[in-house]
Amino acid sequence: MVAALAVIWLGFHFLSDGAFLTSRNLWNLSVQSASIAIMATGMVLIIVSRNIDLSVGSLLGFIGYVMAVMQARWIPETFGLGFDQPYTWAITLAVGVVLGAAIGAVQGAVVAYGGVPAFIVTLGGFLVWRGLIFRMGEQGKTISPLDTNFQLLGGGPDGSLGATRSWILGVIGCIGAVLSVWLARRRRRRYDLAVRPLGVDVGIAVLSCVVIIAGIWLVAIGYESPITGDPSGVANPVVILILVTIVVTYMARRRRFGRYVYAIGGNPEAAELGGINTRRTVMMTFVLMGVLCAVAAAVQTARLNAAVTNLGIQNELDVISAAVIGGTSFSGGIGTISGAVLGAVVMQSLRSGMVLLRIDSPSQDIVVGIVLVTAVAIDAALRLGRRRTAGISLTVGLVLAALIIQTGRQ
């Protein structure tokens, strides 16, 4: 996935005459990828458990609209607490997270305890939550402006860490990368498992630190705020994404909940016979998905400084695509959180690069569709041990995508 991302970046950089690999474009790319990547971390566990959630885009739009109405109408007018208060953003975010968890619990309960296929339940949610935006008291109007502190969640000139705190974040990231390699090596030694050569682990730790420092320098420090003229630093949505990725990865790899999800995806019958409460575990994956939709909704509405009726349209396709392109298998039991985040960056890189090349919107959708089908075809071929078929699928997908891009440019 890293190699594919490098090829995409270099290709678009060449085709755009050096406009892609710039600090400004990469900074925008990181912010634009954040909300999709946040939801993709939860979609991994949904798909790993052999389910699907088609409602995430509509749910994001509905929760984002509710949070906007709360801070712009309900808190200052209905409850008489005033607008732009220090506590407004916290109350709004808390209500959004609780609402997302409740909706996820309802959908998950229908799937897990009601026996209704997740495809049908979430397809219904896809229609219901989108329709509720227009049935609310505001009748689907655009809600703006939003609370000043809430806007910081979406990035912008003031919604970034700045140079000093970005470097501190980079140092913390390097320490975390080194500790991760060292702890993994120590755990394998404790259980008498084979370990990689010391030089390999040292090389991985050093390479990780180089990538982190280079990313901070190129994306965060190299991009100067158009308002202040100072280095913008890492945007707040990216910080939120990093925290979400760490938490969900920890839940998936180090907690029983995550192990149960992978066990259910590998063999549901064996997991249930092994004593796992499969219904409760499946329901909790949808609860987690609802919470992550609320976080992503806060990021998107804060970035726009408004809630609009079409917020989140087609996000469900981007989220599922990010998870699948990142290596999550629809057959269940296989998938990584970090892979989904990379998949989201790949998806946004494709869209961002095609925008720079001035490719029309229909051609962009065609290319994304080709990439998604190609990724699933490669996954299916590799699972069956058909490496030649996987290679053919990759070649055909690349050729078709290149042809569409060329046609769109004309």
Give the distance, in angstroms, between the N- and C-terminal Cα atoms: 29 Å
Relative helix content: over 70%
DSSP strand content: under 5%
The biggest sheet, with number of strands, parallel, antiparallel or mixed sense and barrel status, is: none
Mean pLDDT: 86
Query: How many helices in DSSP terms?
Result: 16
What is the helix/strand order? HHHHHHHHHHHHHHHH
**From the helix content, strand content and strand pairing, which structural class follows?**
mainly alpha
Number-wise, the strands total 0
Shape category: globular
Which ranges are low-confidence, i.e. pLDDT below 50, for 5 or more consecutive residues?
A: none
Using only C-alpha atoms, the radius of gyration works out to 22 Å
Topology (elements, then pairings):
Layout: H1 2-15, H2 23-48, H3 56-78, H4 88-112, H5 118-135, H6 148-151, H7 162-190, H8 198-221, H9 236-254, H10 256-266, H11 268-273, H12 278-304, H13 315-325, H14 337-356, H15 361-383, H16 387-409
Helix pairs in contact: 1-14, 2-8, 2-9, 2-10, 2-12, 2-13, 2-14, 3-4, 3-5, 3-12, 4-5, 4-12, 7-8, 9-10, 10-12, 13-14, 14-15, 15-16
Please characterize this protein's 3D structure.
This protein has 410 residues and is an all-alpha fold. It has helices at residues 2-15, 23-48, 56-78, 88-112, 118-135, 148-151, 162-190, 198-221, 236-254, 256-266, 268-273, 278-304, 315-325, 337-356, 361-383, 387-409. It has a domain at 160-234. 74% of the residues lie in helices and 0% in strands. Helix 3 runs parallel beside helix 5 and helix 13 (315-325) crosses helix 14 (337-356).
